[in-house]
Every structure is written in C-alpha cells, then in structure tokens.
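Page 37, continued from 36.
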C-alpha cells in the first residue's frame, strides 16, 4: 500500500505521522509486537509453557515490495529478528475506467493496480505461506490494516475473546462516527444468516444514515463463507486512528491520528499517577508513550508516578 493520498510515494507503513519520536507506522507496530512478546515471555516464565516469538507476515505490492524490504533492512527490523518477518506480494488486476474501458499504461500494455486487501487469501496461497505457517505451528492469524496508528497488533485480549468464543473468524468493530462516514458495515443477510460486509456505496440511504452500526477495520470478503463469526466492539478513541488523507482534509489525516495517539497516551500517564504541563491547549497536544514501555497503559506507574511531563514529548526507557 503506497501513501499516494498522503503526498508520499513511499509505502504507507513508512509514513511518519508527526509524533514526538518521529517513528513510522511500521516502527510503532514492530515495537508493539516486541512489547506483547515481552509480556508473553513474562507470563510464560511464571508458568510451564514455552514462549514462541510472534511471526510477522507483511503483504506488499509489486510497487512497494522492494522499498518496504529496504526500509526494514535499513532500520534493522526495529529490534525484531530478521527471520521473524516475512514479506509477500499481493496480486494485481487490470485498471478499468468507470465506463468499463481498460486504462492503458502504454499503447500496448494495460495498466494494473494491487487487487485490494481481499487479495491476501490468494497471495498467501500462491506464496506457499500457508505451508510456512503450518511448519511454524501457527494456530491463529491476526490481520490488520497498516494505516491504523492505534492498531493493537497481536492483541491478547482480542485473541482470548476469539478463542473463548470458539468461532472460525472474528473482527474488531467500532461504531460509525457520523451517518455519512464512508465505511462499510457488518450486516446479517437474512434472519440468522452469516455476517458480511456491505460497502457504504451499496447501502440503502435509510440504513446509511444510521450511526448505531458496527464499522469494520478490515474488509473480510471471506466472512460469509465462515461457519461462525464473532464481532468484538472496541472504543474508537483507543484503537482506531486511520491515516488515509493529507493534512488539510476533513478527516483521517496524519494530524488527526497523531492527536488520537497523544491524547490516549496522556490519559495513560495521568491514570498512572503522572502530571502534564503544556504551553498549548492539552486537547491539541499530549504525550507519546513508547510501545516498548507499555502496550495498553499497563506497567507505567514506576515510570510516571509523581513525575511531571511537558507535552508534547515521548516517554521511553
């Protein structure tokens, strides 16, 4: 996924949304994986189970693959082991205009574009990664969009919910922010039918105006074929900060995502007994807590209690 709508030709995961640390989306996600691994390792050491590192599969496109690989190599995989990160390419499809005509890249070649996030299924199969997962003993897959600055990668709470429900698939959902928000919604087709996603462009106007609906963070075209599905509603301000449009747009910008991260982390610091000072209104700023310090606000008391932090800043080890 390239960040063209953000005014960048780099893969979107390489984008820096302007946090005090200057970290890219990829680095934030890598460090959340490191944090979950650390928490899991501590839990395992208290019991008798064996800890296995999380394996990270990153889907690229033919247009972003080389740049993504080089970005990870130049940053030494952000502290992860190189052999626990696997890159694979999604497929492409011909570009077609609204009137049904092929769009030509040259007079003799049809232009192509990535086949969408639904292409992950065929890409995993064609890349032989299903066999790779079986060899590694992978039992559960957590799929997410790279452009969510607040995504909880490998969220143990969500995984526990999924396992407890005993379903084949599950998805995190948030409620629509406003009636006209251009997002799909989870629906049941027919009484007791399977869950599926209806895109905003396909919704009946009377349904589109409702806000008491769950909005998917990821589009799962395979959901209707799953024998059972569970939806897990989360708070938007804690887990959903999409980065889709340039600063200056009305929504889903690097600036809006940055503020969501800083405000959430400011609440963590205050809850842990810390204090904040600021020279601009606090609603326009906040503090950044390194994922290496805390995954969801836990274990911050030793760092924050009784201390004062001047926003904006990063709190790290």
């Amino acid at each position: 996924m390239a960040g063209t709508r953000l005014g960048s030709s780099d893969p979107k995961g390489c984008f820096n949304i302007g946090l005090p640390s200057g970290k890219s989306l990829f680095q934030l996600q890598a460090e959340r994986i490191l944090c979950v691994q650390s928490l899991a390792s501590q839990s395992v050491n208290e019991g008798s189970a064996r800890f296995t590192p999380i394996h990270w599969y990153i889907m690229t496109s033919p247009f972003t693959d080389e740049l993504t690989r080089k970005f990870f190599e130049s940053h030494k995989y952000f502290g992860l082991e190189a052999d626990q990160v696997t890159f694979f390419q999604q497929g492409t499809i011909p570009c077609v205009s609204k009137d049904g005509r092929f769009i030509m890249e040259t007079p003799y070649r049809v232009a192509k574009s990535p086949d969408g996030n639904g292409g992950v299924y065929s890409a995993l199969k064609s890349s032989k990664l299903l066999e790779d997962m079986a060899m590694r003993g992978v039992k559960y897959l957590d799929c997410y969009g790279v452009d969510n600055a607040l995504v909880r990668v490998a969220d143990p709470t969500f995984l526990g919910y999924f396992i407890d429900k005993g379903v084949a698939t599950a998805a995190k959902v948030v409620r629509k922010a406003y009636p006209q928000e251009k997002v799909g919604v989870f629906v049941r087709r027919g009484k007791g039918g399977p869950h599926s996603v209806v895109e905003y462009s396909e919704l009946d106007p009377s349904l589109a105006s409702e806000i008491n609906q769950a909005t998917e963070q990821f589009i799962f075209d395979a959901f209707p074929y799953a024998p059972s599905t569970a939806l897990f509603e989360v708070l938007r301000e804690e887990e959903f900060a999409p980065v889709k449009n340039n600063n200056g747009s009305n929504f889903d910008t690097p600036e809006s995502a940055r503020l969501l991260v800083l405000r959430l982390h400011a609440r963590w610091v205050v809850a842990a007994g810390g204090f904040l000072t600021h020279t601009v209104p606090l609603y326009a700023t906040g503090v950044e807590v390194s994922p290496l310090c805390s995954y969801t606000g836990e274990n911050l008391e030793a760092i924050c209690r009784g201390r004062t932090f001047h926003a904006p800043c990063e709190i790290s080890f």
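Residues 88 and 159 are 24 Å apart (CA to CA). Flag for discussion at group meeting. The chain has two domains: 4-150+241-315, 151-240.
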